[in-house]
Design a protein that fits this description.
The mean pLDDT is 93. The chain starts with 5 loop residues before the first strand and ends with a helix. Helix 1 packs across helix 2 (25-32). It has 82 residues and is mainly alpha-helical. The radius of gyration is 16 Å and the shape is elongated. The chain has one domain. 49% of the residues lie in helices and 10% in strands. The chain has a three-stranded antiparallel β-sheet with strand order 1-3-2. A hairpin with a 6-residue loop joins strand 2 (45-46) and strand 3 (53-56). It has helices at 9-18, 25-32, 57-78; strands spanning 6-7, 45-46, 53-56.
Length: 82
């Protein structure tokens, strides 16, 4: 059974750094802030108990994995035949 692991901003930054994505604290905070439409770049949510922003680790890493797969798929369609 999968048990979700929730990360705060600093822990999420560390998880990304472990896969080679280095962000400074300000960049991470901006990804978690709501824009004018009330949306976040990453799916952080407020912890109902302590009110701090959290994100599920597998979801965070999955977003980057899916972005990579989409980029690879796009590049396959843009390569011209020889």
């Amino acid at each position: 059974m999968y048990v979700p692991e929730y990360l705060n901003l600093e822990e999420a930054r560390g998880a990304l750094e472990a896969i080679g994505i280095t962000l400074n604290p300000r960049q991470m905070k901006r990804a978690a802030e709501m824009n004018a439409k009330g949306q976040r770049k990453l799916p952080f949510f407020k912890d109902p108990i302590d009110g701090r922003l959290k994100i599920e680790k597998r979801k965070l890493l999955g977003i980057y994995h899916n972005a990579q797969l989409a980029a690879e798929e796009r590049s396959l369609h843009t390569v011209e035949p020889q």
